[in-house]
Give the backbone structure.
Amino acid sequence: MDYVTLGSTGITVNKNGFGALPIQRISTDDAVALLKKAYDNGITFFDTARMYTDIEEKIGLALSGVRNKIIIATKTTSQDVSGFWQQLETSLTLLKTDYVDIYQLHNPPFCPRPGDGSRLYEAMLEAKAQGKIRHIGITNHRIDIAREALRSGLYETIQYPFSYLAANDELDFIRECAEKNVGVLAMKALSGGLITNSAAAYAFLAQFPGVIPIWGVQHESELLEFIAYQDSPPVMDDELKRVIAQDITDLGGEFCRGCGYCMPCPAGIDISTAARMSLMLRRAPLSVWLADHWRENMHRINDCIDCGHCKTHCPYGLDAPKLLRDNWIDFQNFI
């Protein structure tokens, strides 16, 4: 079994993080069963967030009885102190715990620092002094803010999108995190579903000792796949290297990661899926993406009012309206 130590936190867990966001889509009973199965099979790192609807409550129901044997990372979206404390107390209540192992500022548009006027970092320090949080982290989709947070020396962990589709500057960032002994929580380790070879994804991330992948899990079959890798970790052999090289050729460059920060769309377009439909059509059974639901959603692209919301809110600086139009043209070729 592969283990990872998250930088200066000293937290050591097996290299399978449970990304809980997808379990908001399933019933409480199914989610509790899935979380318990993960724990029973050696997974002890669970990542969630206050904004993920009912997930904290599900984790509390499933795992409060083994609280001292697991690591919980959650997040606050608040950009003011009163909201910070309200969200932290709500998280503690729903998680049925009196502390959070890693409390993260959730994708802020700036890097909070002491004395910046927001008092967010000061609130983190106070919460830590009270024993309500144990380690201070931050998440971001913007490489410049993530790098600023790293170099500030203020954050013990950084959660950032990281997979084998990473650009060179992102690889440099991950290496600098290791040099500065800052733990990395790798979100989007399967690039929002575009990476379909989990063995290749696992083997790639295993090369980075201070990184824990946060696998988004919704179905038992997905969980069992990653559990199997604990006893028989995939090895980076020539075949997996070929898979990765081909995916980089097919998917590398400017593409939608499906982070969802462009949403909601006033025209009702599911932007985070529609903007990468061309890729999905070529990486999954056509019957899935040509179903009536997706035909209807793709047709909504014609209702785009060019309000600019998606473009200005994309943390990767993508021209989302153009991506939507290009994907709609391609989609019509399949129908």
In short: The first helix runs from residue 28 to 40. Strands lie at 3-5, 12-14, 17-19, 45-47, 71-76, 100-106, 133-139, 157-161, 183-187, 211-216. The chain has a mean pLDDT of 94. Residues 271-334 form one domain.
